Structure formats: C-alpha cells, structure tokens
C-alpha cells in the first residue's frame, strides 16, 4: 500500500452494517440527438454532439439538432445551436475551463456547414440548467490549419489542446486521405501543422490516434499497432514496442486506452490498451466480416526505461471487445464497458454486415479492471449487471460529477434507423456503482481554485457504517471527452491527504505541477472504505487562458 493512503486508527462508537443495491443500470431520459460524443462541461451539464444528418427528434431552428446540453439533474436534453458539422469530432477543456470541439465533416445536402476545420467554443457555464450558455461556432473566424475528420484532441501541460491526425475527407473505412500531422489550439509554430512520421508509419488504421499526456509533459501515442512517446517541446519521437500479437487499437479497429491512476511521489505512468483486433490492415474492408472475433487482449506498459525494456504485459478480458471504452473510477479501478465481441468499427463497409453494422454480438456486461491486483487477477465482472441495450459504434460514456457513469448513443447506421437489429439508440442510461445506494462521505469548503504544489484543507463527513481502519483516498479527476471508444484527457491523480485527529478535516496536497495534471478543470472525489463522495468541481492552476507557463515544483 502506498504511504499516502493514511489509515484511520480512530475507532467508531457505532458501526452498523449497511448493504446497498450494488452495481445497477438505470435507464432515464432520451438524448434527443444521437449522443456520439459526450463531455461533462459543468457539475450539472454534459454536451452531446451528433452528425447533422442523423435526423433525431430534438429540433432547433426548424431542423434536427446535432448538439445538445444534457442536464444531469433532470435527465433532459436541450438543443444547442451548432453551425458546422460535428460528425466524428473530438475535443477537450482548456486551462481556462473553456470546452473546445475539434474537427468534423463536410458533406453536401445537410443543414450544417463544413465542420472539418471546426473549432467550436463553449465558455464555462455557471448556470445549472445551461440557460444563456451558447456555442461559438464560426469556422470563418476560428478554425484549424488543416481539415480533420476523426482527429484526437488532448489537453497538454500548457493548457492548450494538441490535435492529432485524422483524415482530410470522409472515408468509408481505412484512412485514405490522411492528415498525418499535429497542431494545437491555441496554435503554436505560427499555425503551421507539424508533420508526423509516426502517423505516416501507422497508416491505414490510424484514425482517432490514442494520445495521453504523461506526467513529464511528453505525449504517449498509440496508432494502429504502434506506439511512441512524442516530445512537444523538442518535436521528436521515441519509438516504443508495437502492441503484442499483432493487435491494432485505433479506428476502424477500435480498441481503447487509458493512463492508469498516477500516484505520488513519483507519478510513474502506466498505460493500458484493451480490445481492438489482430486482423491485418492490408485486407480490403469488403473481405472483412461483422462476425470476425474481436481481440480480448489488454496490454499494459510502464513508461520508465526499465518498463519500456520489459515491454508490454498481456492479459485477457472475459470477452473480445471492438469499440470498448474505459472509464477511470474515483476508486482507482477502471470500468471496461460497451462495444461488440465481433466485427469492426464504422458501418456499411465490411463484406458481411449485421444490418448496417460492421460489428455484432454486443458486449452487454461491463468488467472492472483493478490496476493494483496481480497479473491474471485484475479483470472481473463479478457483481456487475447486464444490460439489454447495445452500445456499439457512435456511443459514448462518461463518469459524472456525482460519481455514476453516463452511457448514451449507438448508431451503426447512416441516419435514424429503427428497423435494424442495432437501431439508433436515444435511451440514456446510468451505471450506478455500489456507493450510489450507500450513505456517502461528503466534502465541503473545497476551494474553487487550486494552485499547484500547495496544501488546502477541506471539511469531511462520513457515515457511521464506515469501519475503523478504513483507507481514505482523494482522487483528482479529469472526466475526459468521449468519442469513438476513446476517452481523451481522462485522468486520475491521487492526492496526498491527511485526516485531522477529530476526523472532520482533511489536509490535501495539490499535484506538484502542471505536467502531472494539465492545468484546467477537475473534480475531487473522496473515497472512504467502500464509499465515494460526490465530486467537487475545481479549477486546477491559475485558470488563465492557454498557453500557461510551467507552475509548481519539478518532480
Ligand atoms: C429520472 O430522473 C428524474 C430527474 O432526476 C427523477 O425525478 C426520476 O425519479 C428518475 N426516474 C428513474 C426511473 O430513476
Ligand atoms: C504491426 O503491423 C505491421 C504492419 O502493419 C507489421 O509489419 C508488424 O509486424 C506488426 N507488429 C507486430 C508486433 O505484430
Ligand atoms: C478479397 O476477396 C476477393 C473476392 O473474394 C478475393 O479475390 C481476394 O483474394 C481477397 N483479398 C484478400 C486480401 O483476402
Ligand atoms: C487473433 O485474435 C483471435 C481473437 O481473440 C484469437 O482467437 C487468435 O488466436 C488471435 N491470433 C493470433 C495470431 O494471435
Ligand atoms: C434501415 O436499414 C435497413 C438495412 O440496411 C434498410 O433496409 C432500411 O431502409 C433502413 N431504414 C432507414 C429508415 O434508413
Ligand atoms: C479560453 O481560451 C480560449 C483560447 O484562447 C479562448 O478562446 C476563450 O475565450 C477563453 N475563455 C475564457 C473564459 O477565458
């Protein structure tokens, strides 16, 4: 056990056993648009984005909306006025809390304007129901340097977004018109994109590259079956070992990836890649089948010189998964959810379809991955419920501020189709963890803004059923941006915390610097024993607009 996990030695006078309902799926509300991308933008609101041509029921200005604010308290969607097409975009939050949606598509005959250079700006919204909060979307004024469909976006150490790869134009399956470059928002290098040899080498299954911000500020990337570390400041790449056993993990062979929770004092980065396929990317899509088995492989690597030398460590999920998504939980576990047990991402492009879907055999039962368990004992679905709602291509998932998991979308069809096996899914679901039906600890007096390398004190309460000797853990989390089986910018940094002897206050140490936690919004969750508090929204760093200078102390 890590030193920072302070054990409670104060006995509690009464200790009653409380049993909750365990993990459960709850369906509540409809998204109105197809929720193919999702991001939490405030304690009460998420934004969903869709394709302008889907034709969902939610209307705006006399046409179907393709953006919506999802109210996490009322479970209702409100249309957001989006001008350019957000189909297969990505995005993230900047150091000043502003959400930016990046890239998209440009097709004729839709209500949208060309979104391929889109940079859509949603300023921090303090109104709980989103009243008065709007999206700025004017590609004539603010736009990317290159057209990008299927790019990835990641908040980096100076609070900017790094924008990676994509395709210049719409393609049906493989990346046939690649944007093999990186750029930034706000722009660097006078706005000139940086060519990427890595993206060139990883063609043609390299859409939505999986990119992670490491605690030293460098960027880890997986595309196809290859991986590198990219140094933004030096513009150099270091080639790392390929994913083992021929597994490929980026679109249209979507596996998923996460940075495992980072612990003080060293914040040693470990990466987990799960699912995808070992199918060769040289096979024409028409020769592929929705019945081809997906990969059950999870590969993990420690990004230290010794860890890289050791290479990827392989373990197996309980089933193959194409298009799974991994969500970090405030407990430090990783939820593996959604996707299909056979086939590929995208729709109407392989030789043997299921309806219009390139994938079949939906994975209906999530699994939990425990990063601290020994190899071979990390993955389990014990106690996890099974749903009957398939979440395949164009679905999204996010941890919410209240600590449950929002699940929406799925549409392996070109538009709204209710007659196929995998129909257009508007039902919104939550997966509630066991702590949702137990008395939960609370956090209060949390400062709205937290500077790096500092200490702050918060008030805490936890209920009488919490046993003595329970472990107290404080997680600082970025809830990330969900698009195409990748949860970009998602992060959990454990914060050192010391409980006062009267057990009423907790002294918490902030992350040491802006590379361990890229400056910007986050949520702080307190876990005591087996219960977790609601997350409290904080601004980590100065809250200034990017690029921000280095802050805190070096590690
Ligand atoms: C759905 O959400 C609403 C708003 O939070 C709530 O009032 C209602 O009880 C929920 N319904 C179910 C079935 O959970
Ligand atoms: C990765 O894929 C390339 C072809 O795309 C192949 O040449 C190489 O052997 C693969 N690596 C592994 C470890 O399978
Ligand atoms: C793809 O299928 C065609 C038609 O069945 C066949 O001629 C061709 O050899 C196949 N190509 C590959 C790479 O499997
Ligand atoms: C490819 O993946 C499938 C499905 O997981 C598996 O059955 C097969 O053994 C794998 N092939 C290789 C060469 O690893
Ligand atoms: C739904 O998909 C099926 C199978 O491709 C197709 O025959 C049907 O026309 C589609 N319906 C709509 C409304 O697009
Ligand atoms: C945040 O920074 C971005 C990029 O400079 C800018 O467009 C946006 O208006 C800023 N938002 C706030 C609230 O300062």
TrEMBL record:
Pfam families to which the protein is assigned, alphabetical: Glyoxal_oxid_N (PF07250), GO-like_E_set (PF09118)
Residues in the signal sequence: 1-20
Stored InterPro entries: Gal_Oxase/kelch_b-propeller, Gal_Oxidase_central_sf, Glyoxal_oxidase_N, GO-like_E_set, Ig-like_fold, Ig_E-set
Record's keyword annotation contains ATP-binding: no
Protein name stated in the entry: Glyoxal oxidase
Domain Glyoxal oxidase N-terminal: 65-435
Keywords for this protein: Signal
Galactose oxidase-like Early set domain boundaries: 440-540
């Amino acid at each position: 056990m890590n030193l920072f996990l302070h054990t409670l030695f104060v006995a509690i006078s009464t200790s009653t056993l409380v049993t909750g309902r365990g993990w459960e799926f709850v369906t509540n509300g409809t998204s109105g648009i197809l929720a193919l991308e999702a991001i939490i933008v405030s304690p009460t609101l998420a934004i969903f984005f869709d394709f302008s041509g889907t034709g969902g029921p939610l209307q705006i200005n006399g046409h179907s909306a393709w953006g919506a604010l999802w109210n996490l308290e009322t479970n209702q969607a409100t249309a957001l006025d989006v001008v350019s097409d957000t189909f297969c975009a990505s995005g993230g939050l900047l150091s000043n809390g502003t959400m930016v949606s990046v890239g998209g598509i440009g097709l004729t005959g839709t209500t949208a304007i060309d979104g391929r250079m889109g940079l859509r700006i949603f300023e921090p919204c303090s109104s709980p129901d989103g009243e008065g909060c709007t999206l700025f979307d004017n590609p004539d004024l603010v736009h990317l340097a290159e057209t990008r469909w299927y790019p990835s976006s990641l908040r980096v150490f100076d609070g900017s977004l790094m924008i990676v790869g994509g395709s210049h134009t719409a393609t049906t399956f493989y990346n046939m018109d690649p944007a093999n470059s990186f750029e930034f928002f706000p722009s660097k290098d006078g706005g000139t994109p940086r060519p990427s040899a890595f993206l060139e080498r990883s063609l043609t299954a390299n859409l939505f590259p999986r990119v992670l911000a490491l605690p030293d500020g460098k960027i880890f990337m997986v595309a196809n079956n290859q991986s590198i570390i990219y140094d933004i400041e030096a513009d150099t790449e270091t080639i790392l070992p390929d994913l083992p056993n021929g597994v490929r993990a980026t679109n249209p062979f979507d596996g998923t990836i996460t940075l495992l929770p980072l612990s003080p004092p060293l914040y040693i980065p470990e990466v987990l890649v799960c699912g995808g396929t070992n199918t060769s990317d040289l096979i024409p899509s028409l020769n592929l089948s929705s019945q081809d088995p997906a990969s059950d492989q999870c590969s993990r690597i420690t990004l230290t010189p010794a860890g890289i030398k050791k290479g990827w460590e392989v373990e197996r999920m309980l089933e193959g998964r194409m298009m799974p998504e991994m969500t970090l939980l405030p407990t430090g576990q990783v939820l593996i959810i959604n996707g299909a047990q056979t086939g590929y991402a995208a729709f109407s492009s392989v030789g043997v379809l299921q309806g219009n879907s390139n994938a079949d055999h939906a994975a209906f039962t999530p699994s939990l991955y425990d990063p601290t368990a020994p190899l071979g004992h990390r993955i389990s679905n014990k106690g996890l419920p099974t749903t009957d709602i398939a979440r395949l291509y164009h679905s999204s998932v996010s941890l919410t501020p209240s600590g449950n998991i929002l699940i929406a979308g799925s549409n392996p069809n070109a538009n709204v189709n209710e007659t196929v096996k995998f129909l257009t899914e508007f039902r919104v679901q939550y997966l509630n963890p066991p702590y949702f039906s137990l008395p939960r600890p609370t956090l209060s007096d949390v400062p709205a803004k937290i500077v790096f390398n500092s200490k702050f004190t918060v008030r805490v309460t936890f209920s009488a059923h919490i046993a003595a000797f329970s472990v107290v853990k404080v997680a600082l989390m970025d809830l990330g941006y969900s698009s195409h089986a990748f949860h970009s910018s998602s992060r959990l940094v454990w914060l050192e915390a010391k409980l006062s002897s009267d057990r009423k206050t907790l002294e918490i140490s902030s992350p040491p610097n802006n590379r361990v936690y890229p400056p910007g919004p986050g949520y702080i969750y307190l876990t005591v024993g087996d219960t977790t508090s609601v997350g409290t929204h904080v601004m980590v760093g100065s809250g200034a607009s990017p690029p921000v200078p280095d802050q805190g102390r070096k590690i």
